[in-house]
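Researcher: For the record, we're logging two predictions in this thread. I'll number them. Prediction 1 follows.
Model: Prediction 1, sequence and structure:
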Amino acid sequence: MRPKRQQQVIIDRQILALHEAMVEKVIAEPHLLVGLQANLKRYMETGVISYGSALLWESILSSSADPATFRQLVLSDEQRMAQLRRRTIFSGILSEDEREEVLAKYIASELA
């Protein structure tokens, strides 16, 4: 069995791979931002995310007009962003097939 820290690193890498795909999809299909805003609102109302996390997500969403900045913020390697991605507002962006494809590519890259 892997140590807990090592397991968390692997999970964070998988989450990052999924977010890379989700960010690219949102940039290509900006209408998906409506769903992200709805998720953010719902998560705030139900207490899924804290007020501070909601403010950070709002700030990130406000940068979406600049794809490079949006991508950089969502995919940042800062610890706080890794924590935000664990309770992501990006749920529902990828189809199950897209999600499985991303994870298969991630696993293949780890084995290479």
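Researcher: Logged. Prediction 2.
Model: Prediction 2, sequence and structure:
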Amino acid sequence: MGYEYTLKVPNEFRDTVAKHADAGISQIFERLPADAPDHVSVTAVPEGLLLCDHLSHESIAAVALKRTIQWLLRYVTEITVEEA
């Protein structure tokens, strides 16, 4: 239970994001508490990345969302965030 957000990237960047997603997701969780995956998850999906906030620790989810957007901006110039 919680919120899910799809961070969609334009079609022309999807292959690049998918190629680097595993490393990027690891970077997103660097320097977060070890239990961060209990509170939020980030998963590669065909449209970009899916962030799931489990509503158990709002500051960890906020930091993860910020880092996810920052990471995506390395590869794309436009991100659309939609509730999944």
